[in-house]
From TrEMBL:
It is a multi-pass membrane protein. It is found in: Cell membrane. One of its GO terms (cellular component) is plasma membrane. Keywords: Cell membrane, Membrane, Transmembrane, Transmembrane helix. This is Membrane protein. The chain crosses the membrane at residues 58-76, 114-132, 160-180, 200-223, 235-257, 263-296. NCBIfam families: yihY_not_rbn. It comes from Thiogranum longum. The keyword Chloroplast does not apply.
Length: 447
C-alpha cells in the first residue's frame, strides 16, 4: 500500500512539474497553474515562517487594537458614522459566539473613554506610534512574502500608514452605509416580491459580506507592501483570502457552538484563548492571500523546489555593472533618474536582489539617492572618474570586514599565485576603462 501511494505521488509530481507553463496549451495551463499554486502555498505554510509572522501579528494586535480603534473612532465621528464601529467589530468577532459581542462592547467602551485632553501631547504621540507600529509590523510581514528587504522611509511611512488608517475606515463604512441604503430603498423592497429578481437580490445580500472583505483585503495587498503590486494579483489574493476568511469564520463559529468543553478546561480564560486562535487564523489567512498575490504576479517562482533569491558572485557582478550602466546612461543623457521600482520593472527581477546591489553601490560610494518619497539614484561622482575595475573590486569584496579579509584567511602559495594571476588578468582586461567609456555616446534606448 505504501509503495503504491509513493508511486502515485511520484507520478503526480512528475506530471505536475515536468512541462514549462509557457509551452502548455491555454486550457491545460489554467488547470495546472492553480494546482501548482496550491502546492507551493502549502509548502510555504508548512515552512513555518508564515505561522511565526501570524503569531507575531497576534501579539501586536492585542497591544494596538484599542489605539487603532480610537484613531478610527475620532475620524468616523467627524463623519457622523462612529456608531457603526461596534457592529462592524462585533461582526469581525462573530465567530467567537455570544462572548464576541461582549468583547466588542468592552473594547468600544475603552475607546470612548480615551480623551485627547486627558492623554496629553505625549500620550497622543504614543497612541499614534502604537497604531503606526502595528501597520509597520504588517508591512514587514508582507515584505517577507514579496521578498522585499526594506521598509519605507520614516516620512513616507507615516504619510502612507496614516492615509490607510484614516481613509480606510471611511471608505469601509461608506460602502456599508451605501449597501444598507440601497437595500432599504422602497424600489428595491418592491422588487423583492418579484421572482426571480427577489431570489437574486437575496443571494446578492448574502454575497455582500464576501465582497466587502475581498475589497478590504485587495486594498491592503495593493498599498501595504513596499513594492508595486498590480491590480489583478491583489484582487486574486483578495478573493482567495476573503472567501477563506468568511468560510473559516462559519467553521470556527460552529466549533465554538458545539464544543462547550473549552470553558470547563480554561474557565474564565476560555474566551481569551478563542480570541487568540481567531486572531491567529485571521492573520494567517491574510498572509496566505498575500502569498497567492505574489505568485500570481511572479508565476516564474512556482517551482518544484523553493527558489532562494541569493545572487551568486557571477550574477552579482553582472547585475551591479548593469545597474551602474543604466544609472550612468540616464545621467549622461539627462534623462529621468532611475528609481528602485523602475529598475525592478525594467530588469524583470524581484526587488530583493536589485535593492541589495543598490545598497552595495551606495555603501561603496558610487551612487547616491535623492530624498524623495520614492528615492531616485544618481552617480555620486563624475562617471569619468569611476573605473570599471573599481566597481568589479567593490562587488567582489562585498561582505568583507576587518575580522574576515583575504589577509586573515590561511592560503597555500600555489593557490595564492593562481588567484593573483586571475585577478591581474581581469584588471588588465578592464584596463583604465571608466563608466563613461562604457556608456559612451550610445546609452539605453528604452526604459
Amino acid at each position: 500500500m505504501t509503495n503504491r501511494l509513493f508511486h502515485f505521488y511520484s507520478r503526480f509530481t512528475d506530471g505536475l512539474w515536468r512541462q514549462d507553463l509557457r509551452e502548455m496549451e491555454r486550457t491545460k495551463r489554467w488547470v495546472i497553474l492553480p494546482v501548482r499554486m496550491l502546492v507551493v502555498v502549502l509548502r510555504q505554510l508548512l515552512g513555518g515562517q508564515l505561522n511565526l509572522r501570524a503569531m507575531s501579528l497576534v501579539y501586536t494586535t492585542l497591544l494596538s487594537t484599542v489605539p487603532l480603534l480610537a484613531v478610527s473612532f475620532s475620524v468616523l465621528k467627524g463623519f457622523g458614522v462612529h456608531n457603526q464601529l461596534e457592529p462592524i467589530l462585533a461582526n469581525v468577532l462573530a465567530p467567537l459566539g455570544p462572548r464576541g459581542a461582549e468583547i466588542s462592547s468592552n473594547v468600544i467602551g475603552f475607546v470612548e473613554n480615551i480623551k485627547a485632553g486627558v492623554l496629553g501631547s505625549l500620550g497622543l504621540v504614543f497612541l499614534l506610534y502604537t497604531v503606526v507600529s502595528l501597520t509597520q509590523k504588517i508591512e514587514s510581514s508582507f515584505n517577507y512574502v514579496w521578498q522585499v528587504d526594506r521598509l519605507r522611509g520614516m516620512a513616507q511611512r507615516f504619510s502612507s500608514y496614516l492615509s490607510v488608517i484614516l481613509i480606510g475606515p471611511v471608505l469601509m463604512f461608506a460602502a456599508v452605509g451605501l449597501t444598507a441604503t440601497i437595500t432599504s430603498h422602497s424600489a428595491v423592497q418592491s422588487l423583492m416580491g418579484v421572482e426571480p429578481i427577489g431570489r437574486i437580490l437575496v443571494l446578492t445580500g448574502k454575497l455582500i459580506p464576501y465582497l466587502l472583505v475581498i475589497v478590504t483585503f485587495s486594498f491592503i495587498y495593493l498599498f501595504i507592501p513596499n513594492t508595486r503590486v498590480k491590480m489583478v494579483p491583489a484582487l486574486v489574493g483578495g478573493v482567495v483570502a476573503g472567501v477563506l476568511w468568511q468560510t473559516s469564520g462559519w467553521i470556527f463559529a460552529a466549533f465554538v457552538a458545539t464544543s462547550p468543553n473549552y470553558a470547563a478546561i480554561y474557565s474564565g480564560f476560555a474566551i481569551l484563548v478563542l480570541l487568540l486562535i481567531w486572531l491567529y487564523l485571521s492573520w494567517l489567512i491574510l498572509l496566505l492571500g498575500a502569498q497567492v498575490a505574489f505568485y500570481v504576479q511572479y508565476p516564474q517562482y512556482l517551482t518544484r523546489e523553493p527558489v532562494k533569491l541569493q545572487l551568486s558572485n557571477r550574477l552579482q557582478e553582472r547585475l551591479a555593472l548593469q545597474v551602474m550602466y543604466m544609472v550612468a546612461a540616464h545621467h549622461f543623457n539627462n534623462r529621468e533618474p532611475w528609481t528602485l521600482d523602475a529598475l525592478v520593472q525594467y530588469l524583470g527581477l524581484p526587488m530583493q536582489p536589485v535593492h541589495k546591489v543598490l545598497r552595495l553601490m551606495l555603501e561603496s560610494g558610487f551612487l547616491s539617492e535623492t530624498c524623495d518619497d520614492e528615492p531616485a539614484y544618481l552617480p555620486r561622482r563624475d562617471i569619468d572618474t569611476i573605473l570599471v575595475s573599481q566597481l568589479y573590486d567593490a562587488v567582489r569584496s562585498a561582505g568583507e570586514n576587518r575580522l574576515l579579509t583575504i589577509s586573515t584567511l590561511p592560503g597555500e602559495s600555489h593557490v595564492e599565485q593562481l588567484l593573483v594571476a586571475v585577478n591581474t588578468a581581469a584588471h588588465e582586461a578592464m584596463g583604465d576603462r571608466t563608466l563613461k567609456d562604457l556608456v559612451g555616446d550610445k546609452s539605453l534606448t528604452s526604459g
